[in-house]
Amino acid sequence: MTNSTVLVAITDLFFLSKIQTALEHQGCAVRVATQSMQIIKVAIDQKPSLLILDLGLSTEDPVLLLQELRRIPDLHNLPVLCYTNHTQVSSWEEKLKDKMTKVVPNSYISSNINNIVGLKNLFIP
Known about the structure:
This protein has 5 helices and 5 strands, in the order βαβαβαβαβα. It is of the alpha/beta class. The two termini are 17 Å apart. The protein has a 5-stranded parallel β-sheet with strand order 2-1-3-4-5, with helices on both faces. The chain has helices at 13-25, 36-46, 62-71, 89-95, 106-111, and strands at 5-9, 29-32, 50-54, 80-84, 101-105. 26% of the residues are buried.
């Protein structure tokens, strides 16, 4: 995934900065969007290799956003790495049953910060 684009939908500026710096250090171009239509537009225009989505986005309903993304043929197989509080992972997994969507606790991303690019391997069967 080196030299690829990652779309990041995160509103927590500290976490966003941490992820953005790590991805850029790993050779990725980073695009940030936090509104549904903006996320979809950037995904269509930039064709990212991964979307990292904060399930706690207060501006959007993640379920509806993912349903909309999956309706677009070019985005049907876009890997989406969602993160949330560790106590909510199983609840979100139930809501987001989709082979190209993975839900992890935010601590998982933090503990793998130096290899965020490698997290795309979660989507390989």
